[in-house]
Structures are given as structure tokens and as C-alpha cells.
Amino acid sequence: MGPENRAVWRDFGIECTRGQCTYRVPHPLRAQDLRLVPDVPHLFKSLKKMLLSNEVILLPDDIVREEGLPTNVVDARHLQDLVDAERAFELKIAPRLFEATLKPKHFQTMKVGNARAVINNRTSTALEVLAVDKEDPPYLTTAWFVRQVNQRFSLMTSRSLTLALSKKNEANRELVEN
């Protein structure tokens, strides 16, 4: 973490020692805590690696109900099915998704671009199309998960004022809070 980030953390009263880190502080305007994430790209890469190495992520039942998802299983095999389905086509919905991005070599796992090739809106859309094409709704849960992770990563790493969390951008605030 760079010196500017450490200065902001210090101004917020966040302390990090060898044994313990405090990542939450009282929100200046609301009743809940403000949580800070120190290394968003690393978290993003870890989420992708966790999905691909564990093959499934189970979502809580309340999220499945609220979002109207067909199942609670986010399945990495859906990504492999997508690669297989698009292999025969010259024009692809998810053009950056390849076998190599799903099974990266050691140093490839350290690259954010590799994680972005898997977790992005194009992949989510392609999974939705595959769900319709195969008439297999569980693909929609994986598509939803990919889209949610992508949206949060975009919000947390954005340098654009249009995506900033502010009173003017209520929709962005709701995305992060949910």
C-alpha cells in the first residue's frame, strides 16, 4: 500500500499492526460502519482463484430468494462450458475467455488482467446466453455472481467521478451496500 493510502488510513484512524488490522471506522454520516479494503486487485484475483480451484461457491438462501436465482451454486464448470461452446465460433461474446485463463500457469495467476478476462460483463452476458441456449437455468447464478463481482471491482477501483460513491450517485451506493 502506497504512502497516500497509508496517510488516508491514518486520517481515518485506521491502524494496522503486525498482529491486527482494523478496517472499519464509524461512517461520518450514517449509523453503520465504513469498511475500507486495502488491496482490491489482490482480493479480486483471490476471488477468481477461489472460484476456479474450489469449482463451486454456495450462496446464502436469502440472496438466492432476493435475487430470484435458480440455484445457490456458482459453478466454475459453467465457465469451462462457455469456453467449449464458443470454441467453434469466430465471433465470441466473451472473446478474452480461453482455456489458459481458466487454468493459468503460476505467474499468470498474479495478473489482474487474467482475472478480468474471466470476471467481466461479457462473460456474464455469455453465460446468460448459454443458459437460454442450453435451457439450463443454473448458468444464470454463475452469470449473476460474475456480474456482481465485476461491478464491485469496477466501483472500488474506479478513478472516475461518475462511479464515485457520493450523494449524487445513489445507485452506486446501493450496489456497494448490498
Question: Which descriptors would you attach to this protein?
Answer:
globular; mainly alpha; 9 helices; 4 strands; 178 residues; 7% strand; two-stranded antiparallel sheet; 2 domains
- Given the helix and strand composition, which structural class is it? mainly alpha
Mean pLDDT: 82
Low-confidence stretches: none
Listing every helix as H and every strand as E from the N terminus to the C terminus, the arrangement reads HEEHEHEHHHHHH
What's the number of structural domains? Answer: 2
What is the count of β-strands? 4
- Main sheet, how many strands, which sense, barrel? 2 strands, antiparallel
Summarize the structure.
The protein has 178 residues and is mainly alpha-helical. The protein contains 9 helices and 4 strands; from the N terminus they run αββαβαβαααααα.
Q: Would you mind describing this structure in some detail?
A:
There is one protein chain. The protein is mainly alpha-helical and 178 residues long. The chain has two domains: 1-37, no CATH class; 41-157, no CATH class. It contains nine helices and four strands; from the N terminus they run αββαβαβαααααα. It has helices at 3-12, 40-54, 61-67, 77-86, 99-102, 112-118, 121-134, 138-157, 170-177, and strands at 24-26, 33-35, 56-58, 73-75.
Q: What's the structural blueprint in terms of helices and strands?
A:
Layout: H1 3-12, E1 24-26, E2 33-35, H2 40-54, E3 56-58, H3 61-67, E4 73-75, H4 77-86, H5 99-102, H6 112-118, H7 121-134, H8 138-157, H9 170-177
Antiparallel strand pairs: 1-2, 3-4
Helix pairs in contact: 2-6, 4-7, 7-8
